[in-house]
């Protein structure tokens, strides 16, 4: 069951990526605005969940761990945006594959989680396949030591820390009772981004001219993101956080599939580059992914 939800989460998150791309390209909405709106939405949804699930008494230490997990889930965007500002997206996105590596190391040190040799081999294969799926063109420039590279290392480390912290908290607190506080943490992260430099002014100026349908699209986007996030957290509550993180590497596969479908039947919504070289690289990456899955299951 944990494996199923681990793969379902990136499948849903892939939809979120497509909506993000639609909002960024078709409506010129900045990533900062989407992040801040997500923080507001997370706070409201957290309050609703708190009413529905009821108050669950937790100690201050556990509360801080859950809130910090949510906070890091949003704050990782700051170094990520900085990396995108300094470098091309094709050189930045593949570096997110450092995240599962950090998770494996930290879960081993702090959670005492360990996998079999075969599972570690499978993890390495899936990380490699996820990298190949994410990159548009293989180039040594991606791993060149530059400012954007280190910003992406920091961003990946923050995401990994959020996942490990959540796993630590869900070991002692029921799954549904962790979610309201995690949402409050995300809201704090959104507030931090809102107050960072000139983001407050940019957010207020940009949202002032939004049409009603833009807010509808953004709300749908956040609902999809929440479902994806909660699905991933539920998987973490069932199995190793390292395995869940590794299987999130299937996300580029789902984004590719959605992109091809939209490009063929709904090109006005999204148009992906589809040629023989790209498709061959992606196809080989997909084969590698399922090969890695075989090692994990064996």
UniProtKB/TrEMBL annotation:
Give yes or no: UniProt keyword Transmembrane helix.
Answer: yes
Q: Which residues form the EamA domain?
A: 1-134
Transmembrane stretches, by residue range?
32-56, 62-80, 92-111, 117-136, 148-166, 178-198, 233-266, 278-297
Cellular component terms per the entry's GO annotation: membrane
**Where would one find coiled-coil regions in this protein?**
none
Q: Which UniProt keywords apply?
A: Membrane, Transmembrane, Transmembrane helix
Checking InterPro entries in the record gives: EamA_dom (IPR000620), EmrE-like (IPR037185)
Name of the featured protein: EamA domain-containing protein
